[in-house]
Amino acid sequence: MNAKQKMRHILDTLAEMFPDAHCELRHSNPFELTIAVLLSAQCTDETVNKVTVSLFEKYKQPEDYLAVPLEELEQDIRRIGLFRSKASNIQKLCRIVIDKYGGEVPSKHEQLVELPGVGRKTANVVVSNAFGVPAIAVDTHVERVSKRLALAKPDDTVLEVEKKLMKLVPMDEWTLTHHRLIFFGRYHCKAQNPQCPICPLLDLCKEGQKRMKPGIEKKTKNKAMKPKIANEG
């Protein structure tokens, strides 16, 4: 099986396992999504969603974040890791969005990455989920899964992983593949205790094969039991 065939097999398998994969950060518009993804750096989506329930009730638009002292915003997001720097970046971002973009989050990737606290991954998530532009955002789950399945090399950078996935995955499947790789990594191929015994992609994963003790048969060959989705980051 060549690289394209291997990727097709992986994509089809992920589609069977997670047909409804989606962005789990709760939001109702591009601005809220941008704030949520900014907050999610080094933090679980579950925690972010708990914080944004009240945050998005209090702050509806960029002007609202600038109408309070920085210390107040810090307290509103204090359950989030790195809350002080994130609060500062949110206010700086809101000022730029108001002054440069008329209060609307820009839709172009090159504009988004210039905003404080917005990196390449955040920009990819926003353009793909808020504006329908195909993109593959490489977070910790996508990176881990890609390397375990030998879609990328162990020492590849996040950008190199992204480029390799973009080359292997059809463009019209980029966004959905991003979500499915995240679901696979979050709920099945976990960093600790991955579900190797029931993994339908075990034959492609050298790390998984090493984890399996000699003599133990793979419990499933073609299909895995659909994992129960738990509250994890």
From TrEMBL:
Annotated Pfam families: EndIII_4Fe-2S (PF10576), HHH (PF00633), HhH-GPD (PF00730)
Keywords: 4Fe-4S, DNA damage, DNA repair, DNA-binding, Endonuclease, Glycosidase, Hydrolase, Iron, Iron-sulfur, Lyase, Metal-binding, Nuclease
Listed GO biological process terms: base-excision repair, AP site formation
InterPro entries registered for this protein in UniProt: DNA_glycosylase (IPR011257), Endonuclease-III-like_CS2 (IPR004036), Endonuclease3_FeS-loop_motif (IPR003651), HhH-GPD_domain (IPR003265), HhH_base_excis_C (IPR023170), HhH_motif (IPR000445), Nth (IPR005759)
The EC number(s) this enzyme carries: 4.2.99.18
Reaction equation(s) it catalyzes: 2'-deoxyribonucleotide-(2'-deoxyribose 5'-phosphate)-2'-deoxyribonucleotide-DNA = a 3'-end 2'-deoxyribonucleotide-(2,3-dehydro-2,3-deoxyribose 5'-phosphate)-DNA + a 5'-end 5'-phospho-2'-deoxyribonucleoside-DNA + H(+)
Domain HhH-GPD: 39-187
Recorded family membership: Belongs to the Nth/MutY family.
HAMAP family in the cross-refs: Nth (MF_00942)
Known role: DNA repair enzyme that has both DNA N-glycosylase activity and AP-lyase activity. The DNA N-glycosylase activity releases various damaged pyrimidines from DNA by cleaving the N-glycosidic bond, leaving an AP (apurinic/apyrimidinic) site. The AP-lyase activity cleaves the phosphodiester bond 3' to the AP site by a beta-elimination, leaving a 3'-terminal unsaturated sugar and a product with a terminal 5'-phosphate.
Protein name per Swiss-Prot or TrEMBL: Endonuclease III
Organism listed in the record: Paenibacillus radicis (ex Gao et al. 2016)
Lineage of source species: Bacteria, Bacillati, Bacillota, Bacilli, Bacillales
Gene: nth
